[in-house]
Amino acid sequence: MKKTKPVQHYLYIKETGGCDYTIGCGQTLVPLPDNWTDQDVVNAFNDFGLDGQDHDVEAALVVTLDRDVMDLYRQKCEVLRQADEWDSRARKMADLARLKKELGVP
């Protein structure tokens, strides 16, 4: 039986503007305790220096993750790896057939 991870909570913060040279710049996920409170959210803002003075926040959401989907990603990667192997093998077999025909080998 697969062991499941506990539900995880994060504060997602998106600063206004971000920057223009890094994907995800100005976006942060801050872990929150299991039984988080409004004060935990305020503390997270303070910990990141987001006091409304120097940084404007465009979005702030509490995100709850209840499923780890890394296993799905690994399965997808394995399927792609196997497909690449079969594709490579098919190309080699086609090359072998072509060479046999060119060389007159049965």
Query: Largest sheet at a glance?
Result: 3 strands, antiparallel
Strand content: 15-25%
Overall pLDDT level: 84
Q: How many DSSP-defined strands? A: 3
Shape by Cα distribution? elongated
Radius of gyration: 26 Å
| Low-pLDDT windows of residues | none
Would you write up a description of this structure?
The protein folds into two domains: 8-65; 69-106. The mean pLDDT is 84. It has a three-stranded antiparallel sheet with strand order 2-1-3, covered by helices on one side. The protein contains two helices and three strands, in the order ββαβα. The protein has 106 residues and is of the alpha+beta class.
Which terms summarize this structure?
106 residues, alpha+beta, 3 strands, 42% helix
